[in-house]
Specification:
6-stranded antiparallel beta barrel, 3 domains, Thrombin, subunit H, alpha+beta, 496 residues, 36% helix, 6-stranded antiparallel β-barrel, elongated
Length: 496
């Protein structure tokens, strides 16, 4: 059940795409001509084919008068875009956790999907201006194109715009007001695994937005996107909060989903997402998603209400990441050596800090993959009064790649004592594993964590490690977490 349509405001017209002042001579307005041209696309060269599709699609969508076949022409782009999308998705599904910038193919495909959505939005606007109901197929195709582009961006931690969300919300409101939000559409308008209705398509995108994707591993987002798409029908929207898991939603379009969930107040523009059934199903089938949404529902607060408020900074730093590189640098510092130049050290500027964390802007592309959950060493460009390096170790909690090719990261400082160690049990099948590791001791609890390469954990196993001034025999108790490159293992110092 969803709030009655009468309670939704009239969303009005969509923001139109920029229209050209005159027709470009290369635009194709004949369905036959365009179909023949599409049949000759060099799909064996995806980057080239995507570039050609983008150029022609942009000319069509922005033509002053695309004519009566406009919708048919847009539909003709579906097969080549589907083929190109499958190429990109195959690569992402194989290795989703590598947080690298969008490559040329992915960037151009996102632009193609944005142009396609703009074309369908233009058709919907024309229908509204003529006093007609926007066709459900037109609205669904527009929203689906936006969601596909957004999905690629999420898996690359790419910066997202509020315009895309506002348009999806406007489509949802139109569909609800017209009473077509629950009308199912069949392939080939959509894939079999995609939500069948506009309402479910909207809710599935909303739920992934609420997980704060820039704080998650892409592999998690990929799994949660699939699960949310299959279970979006369990969600409801109401005028008043229903249960402890109700999440506020701003239907004015002025607040992004996550901002509304954290800050929205009761009012005419606020509705509440009833997640009770969705969360019950997620508890067993998608525990990570359940945990992320539970944390959101329990932890609503504004930035000024944080336990440790952020303070602005403009401090140059050098970032070291990679287990081997962190070991080498920390080992050198422990021994009183200084080797400021080493591989995988990125230049950065600290832009803010708090008691427990900090944020950095990285200059250029990191020399090695860096993603959420991985450790790093942040070393200031200055020294203290005794001439010693100043810095801290931390875990990456947030990652964002920007349109200009830059990166922003948010980190949580690691507590306690950190000892660089070398694992000695590198025999047999473990001989191929990186033996460099970090042993973290929480000074408050006395507990130990071993940060090591993936593959070292075996339940109740023992390993020997050697630090700068001591050797330890560790019992591997439990795997605390596993990331792209590293594993955090709860360990105990063995007596034997």
């Amino acid at each position: 059940m969803v709030t009655p349509a009468s309670s939704f405001p009239d969303p009005g017209l969509f923001p139109p795409p920029t229209i050209a002042v005159a027709r470009h001579p290369a635009v194709m307005l004949s369905p036959r001509q365009l179909k023949n041209w599409i049949g000759e696309l060099p799909l064996a060269n995806p980057t080239r084919a995507t570039n050609e599709v983008l150029q022609q699609l942009r000319l069509l969508v922005r033509d002053p008068d695309p004519g009566k076949h406009f919708g048919t022409l847009l539909d003709l782009f579906a097969p080549p875009l589907e083929a190109l999308l499958e190429t990109v998705e195959e690569r992402l599904n194989t290795n989703p956790d590598n947080a690298v910038p969008l490559d040329q193919l992915e960037f151009q495909l996102i632009e193609c999907l944005a142009e396609l959505a703009a074309g369908y939005i233009r058709i919907a606007n024309d229908q509204i201006l003529q006093g007609k109901r926007p066709a459900i197929e037109t609205l669904y195709r527009a929203m689906n194109a936006m969601q596909r582009a957004l999905h690629i961006k999420r898996l690359h931690y790419h910066q997202r715009t509020t315009t895309c969300w506002a348009n999806q919300l406007r489509i949802f409101l139109h569909a609800e007001n017209l009473g077509i939000g629950t009308q199912a559409l069949k392939p080939p308008i959509r894939r079999k695994e995609e939500p069948a209705t506009i309402r479910e398509l909207f809710f599935s995108s909303l739920m992934v937005c609420l997980t704060d994707p820039n704080h998650r591993r892409p592999a998690e987002i990929l799994d949660w996107t699939r699960w949310s798409a299959a279970n979006a029908g369990l969600l409801q929207l109401s005028l008043l909060p229903q249960g402890a898991g109700a999440i506020p939603l701003d239907i004015s379009g002025e607040m992004a989903p996550l901002s509304a969930a954290r800050q929205a107040k009761p009012g005419p523009d606020t509705r509440y997402l009833d997640t009770t059934a969705f969360m019950q199903a997620a508890r067993e089938a998608a525990p990570g998603l359940h945990r992320a949404l539970s944390e959101l529902a329990k932890g609503r607060r504004k930035s000024e209400q944080r336990k440790s408020p952020r303070q602005e900074r403009q401090q140059p730093y050098r970032i070291v990441f990679g287990m081997r590189e962190m070991y080498q640098r920390l080992n050198a510092l422990t021994r009183g050596l200084d080797q400021p130049e080493q591989q995988y050290m990125a230049e950065a500027v600290q832009v803010n800090q708090s008691k427990d964390g900090a944020a950095f802007v990285l200059h250029g592309q990191p020399a090695a993959p860096l993603s959420v959950g991985e450790p790093l060493l942040a070393e200031a460009g200055t020294h203290n009064a005794r001439g010693a390096p100043v810095g801290f170790t931390a875990i990456v909690q947030r990652f964002l790649s920007t349109d200009d090719g830059g990166f922003e990261i948010g980190v949580e400082k690691m507590r306690g004592r950190l000892i660089p160690v070398m694992i000695q049990n590198n025999t047999g099948e473990r001989s191929q594993l990186d033996p460099h590791a970090l042993l973290q001791q929480d000074t408050d609890t006395g507990r130990y964590l071993l940060l090591a390469a993936r593959g070292w954990f075996r339940s109740d196993d023992h390993i020997n490690v050697e630090g700068p001034s001591a050797r330890y025999r560790l019992r591997l108790v439990r795997m605390a977490s596993e990331m792209l490159h590293t594993t955090r293992i709860e360990v105990e110092i063995a007596d034997d």
